[in-house]
């Protein structure tokens, strides 16, 4: 009964006469039950001034409320407490926010062949002014699809990331060595996470160690690192509505972005040219393999793809793969620090499988079940992205019993069910993801709730690399160090910039265990 009520409410697209329950479900093949969906205008949410263009968004934030764009997730939670699992808001444009997993699933089922998620407008503006073509996360429609298909097979195969595992083990060793430097400030530690993610993903995007953990890192690499940080800061300014005018004139956010993006562009293209020379040598000497597992080499050997396309793509992957992995690795280690009993269980698993010095390999990784459960639990507790995900559908849809016309941005607010649909949601319990002896999951949560990398054909292209790197950071740290916290660093508040991070930089206390 409950199930068919849920089906009635959620599953069917709007037809001319409203959503129609298929005959099969109505119990009689000749009988069609017509369900009238409520109109878009009836969707709950703040009314009046809150629905005015521009003003409606401004009044959601300080000084009118306690929220800022960085605490948007808290704001959406409060709205859900007040209005229920579906609401309508002005967040720039008018958006619909859904948090019922059935609705979330329904949206993904209707996203079509070319799912639409907003790109980053600042990058798009920069590309337009400099005559660069947009890359993966910016493109839409068939152009997006063509590029995505080209790299799907290279990035999403089971062993795509494993190819880099040996080299990334060495990066993680350097990272853990650096964590043992005396008198690290919370900001120094944050910087080390960023270096770890940058160094790890540069192996993939530029076939290079940047040397960021060296005693005297290369000048270009440091310039590259600082330029990336600055670009990310400007992107965050733009996302949080602090740079409304860059589209029309070169405001200070745009100018800072432009200067730093030019640095990234120049150094990236030098790295790509270097790799191109190596590939050409191999092709000329007949030693190049068609099955080349190195992403950059394989793309550079492909006929009909320009160096510019490859450079833009690699920059897009590098941009997508630095802050995201750095922040989520840090939050994972923070959860382990705050839950010493779970940390100990995980360390025991790692030492049993790898010993105190062994590298992470494809084989050992497959045995680390508690590690995988612990990371999933960390994603559940501290959802990586503030709003979850976003889609703009090509078709009308019924969600929560309301009509939502095609073209309305729909926020899939997974962070909420990630808390409300679990027992003891504030406790870090990796065990809930382990299978019990009868091979069923202990917690039978809806599969559409914890989706840290999105879902469907437009999900995160770098997810295999992201989890591999986070596993490496945790494994190598736990093999050697106890992760604790200085007393001033116990934190439970998180903000989004745009990935999750503790409100204040964390003062970890790393102590050697062997
Ligand atoms: C913990 C780390 C990461 C998280 C939480 C994360 C999360 C996400 C999410 C939620 C999306 C949107 C998916 C959707 O719309 O369904 C996305 C897209 C994307 N991510 Fe990640 N990501 C991470 C790491 C990475 C890494 C390491 C890379 C690069 C190697 C990367 C590159 C991208 C790109 C290029 C897109 C756009 C894909 C497209 O539009 O087709 N991400 N990511």
Automatic annotation (TrEMBL):
Keywords: Heme, Iron, Metal-binding, Monooxygenase, Oxidoreductase. CDD domains: CYP24A1-like (cd11054). Its cofactor is heme. One of its GO terms (molecular function) is heme binding. The keyword Iron applies. The keyword Oxidoreductase applies. It comes from the Eukaryota. Heme binds at residue 460. Belongs to the cytochrome P450 family. PANTHER family: CYTOCHROME P450 (PTHR24279:SF120). This is Probable cytochrome P450 12e1, mitochondrial. It comes from Biomphalaria glabrata. The gene is LOC106056983.
